[in-house]
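Sat 14:20. Reprocessing the chain from the morning session after the first attempt stalled halfway. Input below, unchanged.
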Amino acid sequence: MEVNLVEEGFKFMVLGMSIVFLFLILLIVAMNIMSKIVHRYFPEPQAAQTPSSPVQEGGDKLKKVAAIAAAIHHNKSK
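Finished this time. Tokens:
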């Protein structure tokens, strides 16, 4: 009775890889189920969305430009 080590190694490799693959599939299914349960019983509160005015957006851009200019000035003054 002769044992082919390459064949035995291949069998163990296929067995191990298939067990890991099945475990990962089971893990994905369990995570999806838990996600649905959490979203059903603990929904995220909806924040009131106020439409932003163009004046506000322009002010934000001006603040960014001022911050960038101040950073450049500070860096050059060193």
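The CA atoms of residues 27 and 71 lie 48 Å apart.
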